[in-house]
Structure prediction request, 386 residues.
Amino acid sequence: MAFPLDTAPITKAIKEGQPPVAEPPLAVAPGDPLPGLSARSAIVLDAATGLVLYERNADERRYPASTTKIMTLILALEKGDLDHMVTISQAAEGVEGSTLWLKAGERIPLRELLYGMMMHSGNDATVAIAEHIYGSVPAFARQMTERARELGARDTSFVNANGLPDDDHYTTARDLAFIAAYGYSLPEFEDIVSTREKSYSWVHDENKQLRNENQMLWFYPGGNGVKTGYTDKAGRCLVSGAKHDGIQLVAVVLDSLFMWNDSIALLDYGFEQIEPVTVLKEGETVGSVEIDGGSLSEIKAKAASDVTLPHLKKTAGLPDFEKVLELPESLAAPVQEGDRIGRLVIKQNGREVASADLLAASSATKMSLWDKFLAMWHDFWKGLFG
Prediction:
């Protein structure tokens, strides 16, 4: 689905500040459906299934610049306590590049530093976060690389947490898309990368406000992430996200002359190729669980939320999604209506692509000894006389 948008002001703004092109002119393959893209590497895919909707040189190694911070955020969300206080070191205060102007000795909650890092691209915040969680930037970067490869980013290497240039610090458009797509599955990731403005007392500005540098949050309907990046070596880089009809897309452009325009074109093209398929509806009954010692012998399990996945319009038939119930054989009473009692996993080609919590559809109170005696007596006479 294409979204109408006047991109002329965006194009004009970027052209006026255009750095010299260091690489040979961009060659576009015959039949490329998006020949106007200026990015040397690009991809757009569905975050849940990994379905690639367009790619260009997606496996070429490139410098990621500050899009590196997506992996920093993921590792911090997985390994850090967001309520812990982070003490800013002298090393963090003195880091080069874009900054939050943090001062050595300041103590800031990890959660707030993550917002600052992603919204204002604070390189100083990345150093403080790395030191807080793993003791040093090199140790943190090693964990970033290891975790990225576990997520399927096989051609990625990190040596720092912020993306400052280094020959051993690289990734690909495909790897970055995999990393960002995984991020959307984590609690608080979307909140952090989609926040436009935030105020904190520690911000060294009289209005105490941070404003997100990712203009896609304003430019694109449904825009909800992720991160900008720029260095002389990397060029303009952008990992963007947008959600429409329950479908989350991730687009990546690396070394792009017009990264806003390119990203808008990628997301438009991606949404045009797919239609949403609801494979599970909120409230739908999908199974049951036996109840031990309860007023009911079993209770139904219902879906806590819708699950919507993409279907390629040009493909005949619907995707082959497998539903796998994860429910216990039995539960001990009492069970309250709305309690989480399991999970439904949606798989495609054997890989988990989505899931939904399963809730108790009714309540089962715990039976007293007298209730159990009466039930046994009732069953006895029912068996004796039918």
